[in-house]
Request: fold
Amino acid sequence: MSDPVLDISNLSKSFGALRATDDVSLTLMPGEIHAIIGPNGAGKSTLIKQICGNLRSDAGRVHLMGRDVSSFSTQARANAGLARTFQISELAMEDSVLENVVLGAIGAEARPWRFWRKALDTPALVERADAALDRVGLQGARDVICANLSHGQRRQLEVAVALTLAPKAFVMDEPMAGLGAEGSKTLTGFLDSLRDEAPILLVEHDMDAVFALADRISVLVYGKIIATGTVDDIRSSAVVRDAYLGEEA
Reply:
């Protein structure tokens, strides 16, 4: 059996008396999409921040490809191969599609660039960016200003930026947010193909997308994982139905 790409063990975080995450453990296996679902306020955003290094845990460890990255900064985890996309886009809206991806490629170089726009004249960086844009289907939009992209195209651009890091794993925070039915369907198909690049830890409220994509689902309620299993396991769980899914199951 393969070893986990991402191994999260016993993560906990409290804010005063509030236990936002409570002894959370889960794994992400090669080629897998593992979805985390749960109601608003369940602790999903806190958990993602702990995994990606934006928030220091009170307890627990994060291992990436067998390496303990628990003490790493967000940037160091990204450089190690943990690629995150956001619920709220953090793209540079005034820059072109190519410029956004070159910025990601600069980060992958793990060395300082005093004048980053000179990077646009660096063939290796532009080639890396172009390869990522081609992978997500945005090569024809490389000169378009990011603000002029559709919402779905911005999601694809975020993935292109992440791809420049040659990621070992993706952590995606509600990629379907703000997309209509057609956009969600398109992005679902794209994410399904992306698992060949790297496995995906997916936080998502769109249950149609979750049920279509996930190999495993973990249900987070009040900071605790109450169930982990296949789509069928989660659909048929009375505990999950009562705590979260209700009629959606």
Observations:
- The chain has two domains: 1-81+169-249, 90-166.
- The two ends are 31 Å apart (CA to CA).
